[in-house]
């Protein structure tokens, strides 16, 4: 049995690569979530007129990695107080968000969110919403950092290593 969760964490190249490191993540797919048009292209999303966020769909095995750990890793990979930007990327397409498909995940998401907000000491700029829609990004965006190891990534390499070791026994 697998589960899925969607994370918008700025540029999806780094977010996808980061979560691919985690044992128990079965697949990851870069795409566009919670926007207002049908079948958007990167060029359309880039204008910020479609309402989409660059998002990564994760399919994971909850017996190997639980949602709590994925949420904790997500919050380590972003600046949760930054509105519509992460790293050097700016625009509503780079907003942060947790988009869920299972209503029973909301309680845990809210719990972890509240813990992070108390820790940070200020309101977070991370959306928490049910997934409205998701469209896969173009092929050249999928596994971008595997294809282009020197490509841009807003997530530090040390965090990639931490993700790889997060639930190793």
Folded structure, characterized:
With 169 residues, the protein is an alpha+beta fold. The protein has helices at residues 12-20, 42-46, 67-77, 106-120, 144-147, 157-165, and strands at 3-9, 25-33, 53-60, 85-86, 89-90, 96-100, 126-130, 134-136. A hairpin with a 2-residue loop joins strand 4 (85-86) and strand 5 (89-90). Helix 1 runs parallel beside helix 6 (157-165) and helix 3 runs parallel beside helix 4. The longest helix has 15 residues, at 106-120. The model has no long low-confidence stretch (mean pLDDT 97).
Which properties best describe this structure?
single chain; 169 residues; alpha+beta; two-stranded antiparallel sheet; 8 strands; 31% helix; 24% strand
